[in-house]
Amino acid sequence: MTLNIFFFSITIKKRQARLVDAVQNELAENHYEQNKDRQISVHHFM
């Protein structure tokens, strides 16, 4: 009788956001919110 056992260890590290990436994400969120507000105002206008 053969018993094969494999052990795997997985380590997950949280990535540190760079300043440039954080600024780009903030700008993208701001544009998304502006477009969403614009769509809502157009929808209420009609």
Short summary of the structure?
This protein is mainly alpha-helical and 46 residues long. The protein has one helix and no strands. This is YrzI family small protein.
Architecture overview:
This is YrzI family small protein. With 46 residues, the chain is an all-alpha fold. It contains 1 helix and no strands. It has one helix spanning 19-45. The longest helix is centred in the last third of the chain and has 27 residues, at 19-45. The N and C termini lie far apart (76 Å). The model has no long low-confidence stretch (mean pLDDT 85).
Secondary structure topology:
Blueprint (H helix, E strand, L loop, with lengths): L18 H27 L1
Could you name the key traits of this structure?
mainly alpha; 0% strand; 46 residues
